[in-house]
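Journal club prep, notes for RB
We'll compare a predicted complex against what the paper describes. Inputs for the zinc ion case:
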Amino acid sequence: MSAPAHFIDFIDNNADKFIQRLADAVAIPSISGDASRRGDVVKMALFLDNQLKSYGVETKLVDLGEHTLEGQQLKLPPAILGKIGTDPKKKTVLIYGHFDVQPAELSDGWDTDPFTLTIDKATGRLIGRGSSDDKGPILGWVNILEAHKSLGLELPVNLKFCFEGMEESGSEGLDDLIESEVKKGKGGWFDGVDCVCISDNYWLNTRTPAITYGLRGLTYFKLNISGPGRDLHSGVFGRTVHEPMTDLVKLMSRLVDPDGKILIPGVDEMVDAPSEAERAIYDNLDYNIADIEESAGSATALSSDKATVLMGRMRYPSLSIHGIEGAFHGVGAKTVIPAHVGGKFSIRLVPPQTPENINPLVVSYLEAEFAKLNSKNKLDIECLHGGKPWVENFNHWNYEAAKKATEAVYKKTPDLTREGGSIPVTLTFAESLGVNVLLLPMGRGDDGAHSTNEKLDRSNFIEGTKLLGTYLYEVAAITSKA
Ligand SMILES: C[C@H](N)C(=O)N[C@@H](Cc1c[nH]cn1)C(=O)O
Ligand SMILES: [Zn+2]
Ligand SMILES: [Zn+2]
């Protein structure tokens, strides 16, 4: 059963209205990692809740409790649970997405205000923070709901929704919510779910749609080094006291080599080498070094071998150094010795790695390396958040439906990929609901999620909405035959 032609026509005919809705969403700076923006994350939850309700979804906003951020005790933004349709003859698909975004400032190097959706008429790019990650995809689902309500068309499946506002900050509170709903059994919100679909990642390149069966996990650290009672004058105290920044830079330099090799003993070693057959999967993907260099904006790939680069993203761990809190970073030449600095790095994890088996290796290595510095400063190691990796069985009707939908909308066979990023809740859904989970991306490999000038191409938003809608029809068609 392919999607009805009038559904597809509705999407084409209402494209400008859908883009305006995306502009309204992008205008809310729902940055979960910034305490001063917490009100905006809540505003975004209410915006989305209102949209869902207006197209017939029964929703509830769930209070997830409190957490500490930047030394403040804050209420977590509510999660949105929704449902529409209870036909026992239909499959029930659970849709997950997130309405929070990464931080963005014009001064980071954006060409336009990150929270004003800018439409580049020449390229069709819809530029703004969250356009691709993940406001465009979640509004894709809203577009589908609007189309069905306006056309008086019955949805081909029952839908449940779980949208959160903390994904970019470790999905705090969400696992507990899912587990408590699952414990309720029959009356629980997720009761009766047959499969999960998440649209929150990207194609490998700019040409070929993808379906995704794996995500890396994550463990995120902050190394706090403190010593002097306050910031000091380097002319007065240089070569006089142990300097936190000097210790930190030394420690951070011992984490990873410039070629990506992780220097913490036992981390790289935990992952097996690929078989010839597995290597062939990467060799055969529609991807080349130019794709990564184009999306990175530089000719700096770690290897000229495509399979090596792809495996670096999909099936090996990686360690990235993100920044230093408390370090002098402004303009000018301030001659300061910072008193406290916090170095931030994270490790992307692949099976069998988990935060539980990796964190002790990280902590004992850093403590030993710090001891070698003979510094009188103090080191405190904080793990900010983490999540486990996930790999799914793609020989399942859920993936078959996504493949058929991709072929129907894009007239192309999708790349079958593993994503280098992380969505902590994915494994929780897979394990606690015991159902198949699929990632069906909307955006392209050069969207620049988390980066400056993040964009979603107009065609990806519109064709992507058709793709997500068609997928629901394909789920209904395949499972009615089974
Ligand atoms: C893949 C997804 N769209 C995403 O961007 N996930 C984030 C999750 C995260 C964890 N800490 C901060 N953000 C990612 O992979 O970085
Ligand atoms: Zn993200
Ligand atoms: Zn995301």
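Talking point for the session: The CA atoms of residues 64 and 173 lie 5 Å apart.
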